[in-house]
Design goal:
This protein is mostly helical. 78% of the residues lie in helices and 0% in strands. It is built from 3 helices and no strands. The radius of gyration is 45 Å and the shape is rod-shaped.
Length: 105
Amino acid sequence: MLREQDKAVKASTLYIRYGEAVDRDSAYEFLHRKGKEEQERFQKEIEEKEAEKNRLLQEKAEEKERAKQEKEEEKAQRLKEKKKKKRNAFVRNGKRKKKDPSKRP
């Protein structure tokens, strides 16, 4: 009897489609997995955007610090040049040779 039943099942046109047992995901499993993947992708995008934002802030802070250092160096250079000009002006105009008192006529 079992053989006749097997023959009848295998002879059926539906056997081609439904004869082999397939473990398919249920809609719940499929949607749950898809939602989880979407959530992970979204979280990854947020983290990447946050990392990019932090990187840009860091670059901006470094650029600001470099500009500040350059400004201080320029200021120090100007001050140095100003002192040098003052010293040169003093040497040219203000310093006079003292006459030796022993060489008076």
